[in-house]
Amino acid sequence: MIEDPIYGMRSIVLVTILMIASFLSYFIASKLNQKRSPGQTNEKAKDFGPIQSALFGLFALILAFTFSMSAGKYEKRKDIIVQEANNIGTAILRCDLYPDSLRKEFRKDFRDYLDARIAYFDAEYDNDKIEEANKKTEKYYLSIWKRACEFGRNSQNMVMTNQMIPALNDMIDITTTRESARIDHIPEPVILLLFTLCITTTFILGFFHTVKKSGTIDLILLIIMTSITIYTILDLDKPRRGIITVEKQNQKIVELKKMLVD
What we know:
Elements: H1 11-34, H2 38-47, H3 49-93, H4 100-122, H5 127-152, H6 158-183, H7 188-208, H8 213-236, H9 247-254
């Protein structure tokens, strides 16, 4: 799978580009503004006032909407990882229903399965490593499934089989849910719209306002705070690396290996 261009870049790089573009946009607009007389500037600013307000309101709306979307996806990913840890833990516990010889084989496959799921998270955004981890996940799951089915063909083992099979179904189903959540990013057109509105807003501020020294400082703070907010949005939408991650939730899967210590 080809990574989307925006999500193939680190959030800090994208936000740095946005900040530079915003300051450059304001600088160019200010230079254009200086070429006009103060009267023309004030008259144009007055005429353009309602449009400015509408544009700033639209920018604030898109910013809030995108932040809410990103936070929602982040919470969903956390919940899915915890659910996967619970599902795997349940399946591991049900290995104890089987005879010791078979139980050891199950536990060996579960160790390999956990290693594959840990590698899936550690791959971050390397698609080749993610695909390799997914293949290993399927390989070890099929080994576990085949063993459970073969043992379950004997009618005397139906009780154990009826306990293990649903747990294995839940364990593999959640991997599909997790993979879907991983690739479910904020649509790139929304991010591009957010960037465009940010740059356009700073251009309008420079073009229609005569900014004094104190106003310039305020504008710098505005651009910095807006960039930090957008960085947070992007970071929430990339929980495998950055400041805000799901490392703590994934640790629940890592800790399952303690259950397999003989």
